[in-house]
Recover the amino acids of this structure.
């Protein structure tokens, strides 16, 4: 379930990486001019269409914190994309001219989430700092790259390979190095993992059991997955590789 609010947030406060693009002399003015309406979402299904405010000339949302899943279903098969802090999205936009395949799109809020509304007024106010607009545009490119990697992973024939590559791919962004391994602090029950890797749940459950017995991963009582050892060779440039090897 989602809930709106008249509160506002500056996008340079919502996303420290945006603030880093500005000189200290620019930051305070930008912090004031870059304020956006704040949308708060609570765990559960989210009616994205209900978030449209036609008078605001929406361009999308910047996720400040939290976690969402986008569920795409085509002819009875479903895939999942996870979105979190820093992602830019237009949840109600589906390019009907770009694809003739009908897809059902659903959104689920997995953790309490705050999003800054990107509208035409905000775009105009941040015009003095074009690097902010460029970075917001770049976020879409990075998201497309992450989806391309996930697509390539889904083509590996073995389910256990897909699982390990997917978990390390998620760890690239969300993982935390601990003495016992790399913790992936995301809600990833077997069915969600099955949707992420393009497999049936029983196959995923079986593969997870084999990987656990082999010592490649484990699961905490809190539900978090822990990856042991170094990333697979296919991910030799993984940002966590040096930290794990060290």
């Amino acid at each position: 379930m989602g809930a709106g609010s008249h509160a506002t947030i500056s996008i340079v406060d919502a996303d420290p990486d945006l603030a880093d693009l500005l000189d200290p002399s620019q930051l305070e003015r930008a912090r004031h001019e870059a304020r956006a309406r704040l949308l708060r979402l609570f765990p559960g299904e989210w009616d994205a269409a209900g978030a449209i405010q036609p008078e605001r000339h929406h361009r999308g949302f910047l996720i400040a914190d939290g976690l969402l899943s986008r569920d795409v279903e085509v002819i009875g098969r479903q895939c999942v994309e996870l979105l979190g802090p820093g992602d830019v999205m237009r949840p109600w936009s589906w390019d009907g001219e770009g694809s003739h395949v009908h897809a059902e799109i659903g959104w689920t809020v997995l953790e309490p989430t705050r999003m800054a509304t990107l509208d035409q007024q905000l775009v105009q106010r941040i015009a003095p700092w074009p690097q902010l607009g460029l970075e917001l545009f770049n976020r879409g490119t990075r998201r497309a790259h992450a989806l391309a990697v996930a697509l390539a992973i889904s083509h590996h024939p073995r389910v256990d390979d897909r699982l390990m590559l997917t978990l390390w791919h998620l760890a690239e962004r969300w993982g935390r190095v601990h003495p016992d391994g790399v913790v992936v602090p995301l809600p990833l029950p077997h069915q969600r993992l099955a949707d992420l890797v393009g497999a049936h749940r029983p196959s995923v459950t079986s593969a997870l059991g084999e990987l656990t017995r082999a010592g490649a991963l484990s699961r905490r009582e809190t539900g978090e997955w822990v990856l042991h050892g170094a990333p697979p060779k296919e991910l030799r440039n993984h940002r966590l590789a040096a930290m794990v090897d060290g």
Observations:
- The first strand starts at residue 2 and ends at 10.
